[in-house]
Amino acid sequence: xxxxxxxxxxxxxxxxxxxxxxxxxxxxxxxxxxxxxxxxxxxxxxxxxxxxxxxxxxxxxxxxxxxxxxxxxxxxxxxxxxxxxxxxxxxxxxxxxxxxxxxxxxxxxxxxxxxxxxxxxxxxxxxxxxxxxxxxxxxxxxxxxxxxxxxxxxxxxxxxxxxxxxxxxxxxxxxxxxxxxxxxxxxxxxxxxxxxxxxxxxxxxxxxxxxxxxxxxxxxxxxxxxxxxxxxxxxxxxxxxxxxxxxxxxxxxxxxxxxxxxxxxxxxxxxxxxxxxxxxxxxxxxxxxxxxxxxxxxxxxxxxxxxxxxxxxxxxxxxxxxxxxxxxxxxxxxxxxxxxxxxxxxxxxxxxxxxxxxxxxxxxxxxxxxxxxxxxxxxxxxxxxxxxxxxxxxxxxxxxxxxxxxxxxxxxxxxxxxxxxxxxxxxxxxxxxxxxxxxxxxxxxxxxxxxxxxxxxxxxxxxxxxxxxxxxxxxxxxxxxxxxxxxxxxxxxxxxxxxxxxxxxxxxxxxxxxxxxxxxxxxxxxxxxxxxxxxxxxxxxxxxxxxxxxxxxxxxxxxxxxxxxxxxxxxxxxxxxxxxxxxxxxxxxxxxxxxxxxxxxxxxxxxxxxxxxxxxxxxxxxxxxxxxxxxxxxxxxxxxxxxxxxxxxxxxxxxxxxxxxxxxxxxx
Length: 668
Fold this sequence. Notes:
The protein has 668 residues and is of the alpha+beta class. The chain is 23% helix and 32% strand. α4 runs antiparallel to α5 (107-113) and α11 runs antiparallel to α12.
C-alpha cells in the first residue's frame, strides 16, 4: 500500500496529485529546484526535498536524484507526473529496483512505446487501423507525407513534405534537429485528433472513458480539449473504444493513459500512439464521468481492481483550455517574467472533479509566481462543465474574458476568440483550425474606442495615484501640470504601438474633454508631449469615478468599469471590452546600443540545445543554425539570408537571455 508518495514533477500536475492524496489519506513529498523554492506545489506537500541543479534536465529529470529524494523523505512510492520521466523505462525499472511502488506504466511496455514504429507494428498485428510507415525515402508511394521522429513527443521535428524534390533534405534536417531516426507516414489533410482515455489494471480489465477532441493545436500541441467530440456519434464511439482496448492489450499496458487516433471527415480513423501518462486534459474526462482518475491510477498501482464494470456514461459536456505564457502574434514565443496577478472568477473547484456544472481551475501558479524559461509554458487549465456544448463554451469564454492575468503575455485572448468563433460553435474543427483562420489572431481590442477608453482610464488612474501621493506628502496638487485647465498628456506603448492620450479637467474637477492619437514610432517626440493638435475629441464621456485602481466612465449613457492594476511603468486595464497592457513611455528614454550588422539575437530566454554550424561555414537563407530550448520546447534559429558564420559565441548548454547575441552572419 502507498503510505507516502513523492511526485517527480512540479507545478499543476504535482498539485493535482496532492489534492487526491489528501482526500485518500496518503502523505505527500514534493521535489523542487532552487528556482521553485517558493512555488505553490512545494508549500502544499507534507514534505519537500531540494534537488541540485538549476534546469529541469539537471534537477527534475534526473532519475537518480528523484530516487534519492524519495529514500531520504521516507516515501514508498513515486508518481512521475506527466513529463518525460513518466515515459522513461529505465526510471520505472530503477524505482522498482529501489523497492518502491511505481505509479505508472510497466517498464517493459514503456520500452516498447519508446519506438513509435515498433508500437505501430504491434498494434497493426492486432488489426487496429494504422497509417503505413516508411523509413526508406524510396519507399514513399505518394505525397504529402509527414516526417516524424521515431522517439520523443511534443511535436518536435514534425515536417510536412509535399513533393519528392525536398524529401531527402527534409529527412536529413529532421534527423539533425531531433538527434534520432525518423520515418514518414501519409499526411492526412483536414483530420481531427481524437483520443480515448483508458485505465487498465493488472487483472486484465481495460476501461475506456469515452473520447476527447484535441484538434485545436499550435505547433502540434493541444490548447483546447473537449468531451464528447462533436464529430463522434455513439456508433463511432463504440468503434474507437473497442480499438483502444485492443491496442492496450496488444501492448501489455497497465495504468492510466490515452490511445490517440486520427479521424477524417468520412469517419475513418487510424491509431497514432499510446501516451503512457495521466494526460494534461484528464480534467474534462473527470467532469463528464464523475470519476477521480488520479485515485483510480493510485488504486491500480497498488494492485487493485478497477471498480467499474465498463465505460461510465457521459454526463453533459466539458471543455478545457490551456492558458499558456506565450505570444500567439509572434510565432508562439514563450513569455517569461513575474505573474503579478492571476485571478479567475467564479471557480467552483480546484484540482478535483466538479460536483455540479461550473468552472474548474487546475493551476500551477498564483500571484507573484515567476515564469522562467526552463519550465513548461502552461500556467493553468480552465474547464467548463455544462449540460450542453454551447453552454460550456459560453461559460468558458466569459470566465477567460473576466480573468485578470497580469505580468506575462498569454494566449488568453486567442482562446476567447477561438471559443466564440462560428466554426468552433458548430463543431467544425480539425488540426488546421488555427492555420486557416487568421482572424482568430486579430487583437481582441480591435475597436479603436476600446483601446482609447483603456488609455484614458489608465491616465486617470495614474493621476489619482499621484493625487493621493501628493496629499500624503502635502506637496503639489493633482495632475501632471499645475494648470487645472491645461491638457494632461502621456504616451503608452499599446497593443498596436505608441498611443498618446490627453485630457482636460475643468475647475470643478470634471472631465472637460479628452483625445487619443496613434503615434508613428519613428516620429515619436516624448519630450514634446501636448504639442500635437487634437485629432479627436469625446465630450460625451463623463467620469463617474476615478480612483487609483478603478475608473468608471459613462460613454453615451453606458457605464463601463475599468480595473487598473499598476506595476511600475505598466498599467494592466481590465474591462468588459477586454484586457490590455499599457507601458507608459519615459519622457527622456536612453538611446539603445547599436547592434553589429548581421547579428542574430535570442528572441527569448533559454538554453542553447544544438549548434549545427561552425565559424567560417557558408550557410543558405533559411538554413537551421541552432536551436534554443525554452519551456520544454525547441525553437529553431534560421539564417535570415545567405552568408558566412563570422562569429558564434554560444555552444550547447549556453544560457542566454532575450536580446543576447547568438551568432553574426557576414555577407558572402
